[in-house]
TrEMBL record:
Pfam family, one: DUF2147
Protein name: DUF2147 domain-containing protein
Species of the source: Mucilaginibacter angelicae
UniProt-listed InterPro entries: DUF2147
Residue stretches making up the DUF2147 domain: 34-148
Length: 150
């Protein structure tokens, strides 16, 4: 086999490997992973599945990122030490596990508008995600609907 044919075969094998890996990585992405607008579209939340198999979400975009000319911070947090952390990058969803085809349970949601953390469950509905935050049992809670932001 000529040198140019060897290089072509080597290139083709590398290209096929890259394509196979990227297809496999895409196939392993869960349907809730990605960017979501909150209910009032004032923030985008990036939901990811971490190595522990649980789902987490953090704020990656704010419609109004500044307050009085400075980046918004987590000023309502009940823990005074956390009040200076930026709202951009703020973790707001934690510890969700997949519970069936479209349900995610066992997690918490943090509301930076009041500084409180609630038990939470999520239900995937295609281009929307129902987020139910509650105290104790889900009967005593509130549901908001997030929409896909990609």
């Amino acid at each position: 086999m000529s040198v140019s044919k060897k290089h072509f075969v080597r290139f083709a094998l590398i290209l096929l490997t890259v394509v196979a890996v990227s297809i496999n990585a895409k196939a392993q992405t869960d349907k809730i992973e990605g960017l979501w607008y909150n209910d009032v579209k004032s923030a985008k939340i990036q939901i990811t599945k971490e190595s522990n198999g649980k789902f987490y979400g953090k704020v990656v975009w704010l419609k109004e990122p500044l307050k009085n000319g400075k980046p918004k911070v987590d000023e309502m947090n009940s823990d005074e030490k956390l009040r200076s952390r930026p709202r951009l990058g703020l973790p707001v969803l934690a510890d969700f596990v997949k519970d069936g085809d479209n349900k995610y349970t066992g997690g918490t949601i943090y509301d930076p508008n009041n500084g409180k953390t609630y038990s939470c469950k999520m239900t995937y509905k295609g281009e929307t995600l129902d987020i139910r935050g509650y105290i104790g049992i889900s009967l005593f809670g509130r549901t908001t609907t997030w929409s896909r932001a990609e």
